[in-house]
Structure formats: structure tokens, C-alpha cells
Amino acid sequence: MTKLSDGDQALRARASKVIPGGMYGHENVARLPAGYPQYFARAEGCRLWDVDGREFIDYLCGYGPNLLGYRHPEVEQAARAQADLGDCMTGPAPCMVELGERLVDTIEHADWVLFCKNGTDATTICLTVARAHTGKRTILRARGTYHGAAPWCTPVREGVLQEDRAHIHSFDYNDVASLEAAVDKAGDDLAAVLLTPHRHEVFQDQALPDPVFVRRARELCDARGALLILDEVRTGLRIAPGGSWERFGVRPDLSAWGKTLGNGYPVSAVAGTEVLRDAAKRIYTTGSFWFAAVPMAAAIATLSVAKREHVSTHVEVIGQQLRDGLAEQALAHGFGLRQTGPVQMPLFLFDDDRELVRGNFFAAEAMRRGVLLHPWHNMFLSLAHTDADIRRTLQATDAAFTALRKANL
Amino acid sequence: MTKLSDGDQALRARASKVIPGGMYGHENVARLPAGYPQYFARAEGCRLWDVDGREFIDYLCGYGPNLLGYRHPEVEQAARAQADLGDCMTGPAPCMVELGERLVDTIEHADWVLFCKNGTDATTICLTVARAHTGKRTILRARGTYHGAAPWCTPVREGVLQEDRAHIHSFDYNDVASLEAAVDKAGDDLAAVLLTPHRHEVFQDQALPDPVFVRRARELCDARGALLILDEVRTGLRIAPGGSWERFGVRPDLSAWGKTLGNGYPVSAVAGTEVLRDAAKRIYTTGSFWFAAVPMAAAIATLSVAKREHVSTHVEVIGQQLRDGLAEQALAHGFGLRQTGPVQMPLFLFDDDRELVRGNFFAAEAMRRGVLLHPWHNMFLSLAHTDADIRRTLQATDAAFTALRKANL
């Protein structure tokens, strides 16, 4: 029975009986400081309310999907209008074609798209298309990078076979020599190099891409007849709608998109160039819900709003405000705080804080003051975060720095 | 730009530019008779309207998900109520816990559940849990059975490596000797036997499970310390809500669910027994949209309506009416028609029709008369199919048989 009055602790107790470990996956708060909300009652804009009635300015954005603000009226309206017609039918609705056209227009390298549901679906399809097109097996990827949670890429090896990762080899992100060595080792069997637009792994500083590395990756793929795959699942639409590496003049052959596409409605996509169209046609992949119309209608509205409102510019401006404010506070309070990666997807880590003692304490103090930060995962900004939200956030973080100083951790 | 006036042919022409092959996956009508609708404008109950304004009684039900009728008011209401609060947030909503409890109550063998998005996610997780629990690698599956579209199971080998299917071996469904031989060959390395509740492959007669085979599969797993995995993605809630093999007194260790769970809203699930809880906790799997609240709220409503309305009984009764009517007509018109599998998931194939000349012609004739049948994929019945729909369907099929006789194919 639903007990609407159940708070976070009661829900956790109930969940521990019917869900392994009480929760799983990236939304499991087990590794976050005590008191972090696990269950949410409501969302609007950049605000979340947990089941205990606490209000937060949310810097996780659903771990990415919330690009325009939770329950953005235009997206909701588009989704409802389509829901009133039909969603998961025996075939797609016309909006699938329109969304395909819109994405081909938006993503610079794209001549075609293919829709799926998970980010992992999209990255997996990229590998399959690359292997179908080249007839080769080897995929090179950056060491430790997250590309999803299928057996070939999940960060935990439990239940995963060696063979699930056969012909997948690693190099170090931003390290030209390491990439060159991996390419040499792959020899004639190189199908693709798979990269995220920047390095955004948990528990470590993010790293912006070195333009020299980016261009060299493209050159090496071209020289070897291999494909360059860009995993934009986490970055898509926040960094640059046309593709995160457009500013380097580098285009991938294949790209994977997810999270933000439907502003939270479930849809992901693979985009590819003309030469790969035939391979994409020859592979077989599908899903029960992949042709559902409502997320596609939501995605069309998301693209429209994102374009009109220049969302990637907004999140960059607001993200810079947050970064500058935190940097100033850290300095004033005498803490070494490393803020890394694009300001649209902030991550901060305290110096000399291997065990995250300071990071956890600081995030917990901010959380108690109504600001949901993450101590070791990159965060996300949205169109709904305003100057006023940043100011309010910085008040909370200033108090959190004071508390941290006092705690002398 | 959306051209609302675009009909099916115009949409196909536009799609051919931005989607590889114009369409992909199981909702691609390329292998269906000419004139079959690819794009749908609207759905309600068991009715679909295509973009050319043609109305159909739909026997595909979105290839399964539509269990209660498209846009079932109680499901829609539950989904909207949750959507007004929040969907894809930074953590789950309370309805995740309630849905977990409801499924553990509903699925007889289940002590826990884990939610995901695709049916393929669910079957893949079953394999991972089985391997994590047993420390063994070999999975035995019935030859030619569809378990999803990931590299380990997609029916098309393009872009798939040999290693993607390492340690996955086949036996023949319902063939005890074949299963025993495969189990013997697996020796000490058997992690699990993976089965669908009945054989429901395309282009061939379905096969109900032989109770001797079902019980032997359970015995063999027990004897070898292996797990029995039941893939209920296509059968779930239509055959029997508690599990399709309950009537044989056989319970799986793990089961995969999808399609119908949210009556079209995207949610799938893995259910498992107590002994597997720890393995399920140790593996890592997740997805950007897996914790979204709206599909879970929809699933709770779906389970409630399905239970109250005895949906599996309804689809059995109505399915029997359709089967009896078609059998009578085939006999009267002098055609050998094989109707196989559970009546809730009907499949029919004409005798001596290897090339599906009769099957395609018959389905096209029914389609022209407002009845959407499938000439080689199992169909699905819903709570929304009424006696009157079956009568109207049988009028159309009677005319289709007459046309088929006249065509002398």
C-alpha cells in the first residue's frame, strides 16, 4: 500500500525489502553523506522537494536530463498533446520523422539518426555500426571512462565475462602517445576510437579535451580507416547543440546522445554520417518502447526551446557565476578547491581530500541549507537556474565553508 | 517542419532521408504487405488510426505493451498525477517502492525486483546476475529464440562479434534430450538455462511448453546448481500475472518483464529469489531514465486494473472466440490454417505457404477492411478487445478468406 506520509527513512526501510541493496545504480545515495535525500516528492524548474518536505536547488538535474527545468511548460504541453493522441503504438507517430529531421539539422556531422531509449543503447549501437561498417573488431576507449552499464562497459566486473570486453582496449585521455600506441597495437583490426567530449569521470578532476589530442584522434582514425565515435550522452545540448567538438573543427563519424534530448522524457539517439547509413541499416536493434511518440514530441519541444533560449550559452554564463563565486569563497576561507571541466557541468574537489572528508562535509552542509551539490560526480546546470539561484546557492556554500573551517577537518 | 497533412507515403519519403532504411526494428513494416500503415496518428482502446485516416482494430497492441487498451483512463490519470509532481528527478519517487512491493506480491517467485527500461535490459541483467551468483559462465538458451537485441542476443549478426556470444549455447525448445545434452556439455560451467514461457518465434508455429520439458528444465538446473531464467517480456501479465509457469508448479529463479508492465509507459523489470539478492546487489547496472516516476505510477495503475478486471482471463476468453471463429471460417473456405500458441497471443500460418503468399494476401485483405493482423509475428489481445470487436474482425476475415479463395493463390 502507498503510505503517502512515508518519509525518506521509512521508504528506505520498505525498499530494502524489495529492491536489492535498497537502491541501485547512479541514483543510489548510499555513498553520499548521511541525510542526503533518496526519494523525491516533487520537481519544478531547478527545484526539488524531497519526501520530507525539504526544498533544494538541484545541481544534479536528474544526473543530466533536466536541461530546461523540470516540468518545462512547453515540453509538458507538447508531451501531453501527443499523449492525448497516442504514445506506444503499433508504429511510430509522425513526430519521429520530424525529430529525425531536427536532429540531422542540429547535429553538425549527422546525416541520419536512429532512436533508442538508454544512453547505453546508443553507445552500444555505435560499436555495432562501427564493426558492421569496417568489418573490424577493435574498439579503443579512454581508460576508466564511463560509456554505460552494459557488460562491455559497466564499471563493475561482477557477472561480466572477459569475452564481453574482447577487442576493447584502453588508452589515456588527452595522451597522444598513449592513443598512438593503442592504435599501433590494434594494427589492421581497428574499428573505432570511442571518446567522450571531455573527461568526466567520478572521483577525479574533469579534464577538458586537448585540441592537439582531439585533432590527432581524428587524423589517426582517418589514416587507419577507423571511425571516431563521440559519446555525447552526458554532454549533449549543454556544451554545444551541434556537437561538443565543433569548436575544434573536428567531427565524429558516429555520436551517441541521450539524457537531455527529451528534457527527461526517455529517448536516446545515435547519429551518423552518410557513409555509415548502410551499416546502420544492416544491423538489427530495437526495443519495445523505442518508437513511442511522447518522448519524441517532448524532444522536438526541447530542441526548440534550447535553440530559442540559447540554453548552452545560459548554462555557461550561470555556470561561470557559480564557479567564480565558489573560487572566491574557497580562497577567502583558505581552502584549495579544484573546479574542473566545463562550467556547464561543474565538478569540484578539495585539495588533499583523498577520502572526501571535506567534500562530503561541505556537500552535507550545503544540502542542509537547501542546495543539492555532489561531492564526487560532475553536476549539471539548466536553463531554470537563475542569477538569484546562484546567489542563494553561494550564500549556502559560504556558510558551508564557514562550517567546514570550524570543523577543522 | 511538421507537415501535419503528410500521409504515410510522404512520411516514408521524408524518413528515408534521416533514418537508415527509412525505419528499423520490429515496427518497420518493410516486410509486411504493401499498404500496411507505418505511421499512426491516434490510438484508443483497441483502435488505431493511421496518418491517412484509416481506422483499424489493432491486434498487435504496440507489439505487446498495450494490455488494457491504449490510453486507458486509469493509467493515464495515474501517469498525469505523477507527471504533475515530477518524473525524471535526481532520485526516484515513492511510487518506485510501491511498485516494487506490488510486483513482489504479484510475481510468485519474486523476493525482489530491479527496474530498467528495455526488455533487453531485463534479460541482460538476468544473465549478469546468474553469472555473478554462480561464478560460472555458460548460459543455455533455446535455438532461435528472441531474447532482445543486444549483441549477445540480436537475431542479426551484423556488427556482432563471436565473443559477444561466448559461453551461450543452444538447445531445442521442448526437447528434453537436447536440453540434457546441452547441460551435460556445459559440465561444471553452467550458470543458467534461459527460456521463454512458450516458443513464440516469428515465421513459425508457436509451441506451448511441454510440462515434462518444463519440469525437467527445473530439475536439471537444481541438480547442477544453475539458475532457471524465465523471459516473460513478451508473455508477462497476459498469460498469468504471477508467472506463466505457475500452472506447472515450476518457478524460475530469475524472470525478465517488460512490455505490458506500464501499459505502454516504458518500464521493464527483473525479478529474483532471495538467494540471488546479494548477486543482484553486487552487479552494477543503471540508466538515465530507469528511476523516472511516471512509468512506475503507470505500472502501479496497470497492475491494479489488470487484477481487478482479470485481464488474463478476458484476453483468454476473447482470444478463444477469435481462434474459434477463424478456425470455422478457414474450414468453411477450405483453407488449412494453423493457429498456435496461447490464444492471448495468437499466431496463424496457412498450410503450404512457405513464402507467405496466402498469409500476406489474407492479412492485406483484412487490413483493407479495418483489421490489423500480422502474417508472421504473434499478435496480442487486450482488455479493450470486446465481443463486438471480435465479431467485426470475423466479418473482415470472412471477406478476406473469400478474396483469398477467389485469388486462387
The total strand number of chain A stands at 13
What's the gyration radius of chain A in Å?
22 Å
Number of helices of chain A: 11
Instruction: Characterize the largest beta sheet of chain A: strand count, sense, and whether it forms a barrel.
Output: 7 strands, mixed
Q: Strand arrangement, largest sheet of chain A?
A: 4-10-9-8-7-5-6
Termini distance of chain A?
Answer: 44 Å
List the helices and strands and how they pair.
Two copies of one chain form a homodimer.
Chain A: H1 8-18, E1 40-44, E2 47-50, E3 55-58, H2 73-83, H3 95-106, E4 112-116, H4 119-134, E5 138-142, E6 168-171, H5 176-186, E7 190-195, H6 211-224, E8 227-231, E9 254-257, E10 268-272, H7 277-282, H8 293-308, H9 311-333, E11 337-340, E12 347-350, H10 357-368, E13 371-372, H11 387-407
Parallel strand pairs in A: 3-13, 5-6, 5-7, 7-8, 8-9
Antiparallel strand pairs in A: 1-2, 2-3, 4-10, 9-10, 11-12
Q: Please, could you describe this protein's structure?
A:
The structure is a homodimer of 409-residue chains. Chain A has eleven helices and 13 strands. The first copy, chain A, has 409 residues and is α/β, with parallel strands linked by helices. In chain A, the strands form three sheets. Chain A has a seven-stranded mixed beta sheet, with helices on both faces. The model of chain A has no long low-confidence stretch (mean pLDDT 97). The radius of gyration of chain A is 22 Å and the shape is globular. In chain A, α9 (311-333) runs parallel beside α11 (387-407). Chain A is 37% helix and 14% strand.
